[in-house]
Amino acid sequence: MLRKYVYKLSPTQIIVSAYFTAIVIITGLLMLPISVKPGVNLSLIDALFTAASAVSVTGLTTVSTADTFSTFGSFVLILAFQIGGIGVMTLGTFFWILFGAPIGLSQRRLIMIDQNRYNLSGLVQLMKLVLGMTLLFEAVGTLIFGLYFYFAGYYDTFYASFYYAVFHSISTYTNAGFDLFGNSLIDYSHDYFVQSVTMLLIILGAIGFPVLVEVREYLFGGHNRFRFSLYTKITTVTFLVLLVLGMLVIWITEDSRYFAEMSWYEKFFHSLFLSVTARSAGLTTVDVSELSVGSQFVTSILMFIGASPSSVGGGIRTTTLAVVILMIVTFARGRSEVRVFGRSIRQEDIIKSFVFFVTALMLVTGGTLVVHMLEDQRFELVHVIFEVCSAFGTCGLSVGITSGLSYSSKIILVLLMYIGRIGMMPFLSSFTSGKSTADVHYPKEKIIIG
């Protein structure tokens, strides 16, 4: 019966259903008595919210992770980070290979959709590289943090040091944003080594797996003349420009406010870390609720944009923003062909970018209005915008109002986190039947625009 139902689904609907199923399973595991600390009562809505946040690698929480979950519960969250971070099909590919099962055309199509790729060639090799790099970066991060936590005196035993290290390393690389420290990284606000390694792991997770694969090929492939793809060039440039602009705007905005009594290097690290973490990570070294309205709004924009495609992050993605801006500039110059780095961008990709951008804007705007009305204007509008953008961008930064939201508002955020994780393409494609339509063309007629 179940198999017959699955066969009726399109590949996109299977991927969407897989993430929904993962959220349900993680919710069930978190509801187990062994997952919470003695004396802690975790409600169904809080378990669902935490599971959705973990699988979507967001980091928004309605309960304190450190005070609520046991060691077993922490490892359930780690499992959810891996599922959401590298994708269900990457883990599926690993188990197919592990048990010697053949990876057929149907499985490759699922991988292609899950990783937002255009063609079927080289997908299995890509999944192997993604999984290998993920385990490598997480292992190195765990080793660095574990040794540092112990020898710097943060924890008394190797067990405690590496317990916190493995959770923090995986949460950071997958941009999950969860922490066991109790107040994110505020206790490490003057530890620039921890901040630097954390930012590096965040960037490695958010820059996009195809970029990492191409960098690896460039460094170790033995090519005499290696050419980076247009995707990598646009992604990297957009990512870096947003990072620098975000840092500068936050620094300038808070220079005479939150950063007023700080030295220049403290201002630099706080601004840089906030700009990096706003891409999709959600960890913070400052109390975000104390920032000015300007900084909160800029951070909301960064979270709405999010990370790169085929990464662990959410949002509209960097390439979507880049193509929209390039098209606007091209139109303003009276041209019709979008050109960048000696290449032309396909019309199909331009249309997708505008569709994704407008749809995301409507989702965030609608979510903000609904939550603001449901809460009967108990919270400031800029704070609601911040939480909604954080949910959609799967970031996890919060001004502290999430736990005080009503059940209905929490469900809205759960839906936004879910949509942010699966991506705009699978979200929109999940409404199609998958059946081909007749290729009928109607007469064209001009309408007045603008």
UniProtKB/TrEMBL annotation:
List the Pfam families hit by this protein, alphabetically: TrkH
Which parts pass through the membrane? Answer: 12-32, 44-63, 75-105, 126-151, 192-213, 234-253, 312-332, 353-374, 380-399, 411-429
- Where is it localised? Cell membrane
Work out whether the entry's keyword set contains Glycoprotein: no
Identify this protein by name.
TrkH family potassium uptake protein
Record-linked InterPro entries: Cat_transpt (IPR003445)
The way this protein sits in the membrane is described as: Multi-pass membrane protein
Provide the alphabetized UniProt keywords: Cell membrane, Ion transport, Membrane, Transmembrane, Transmembrane helix, Transport
Keyword Ribonucleoprotein attached? no
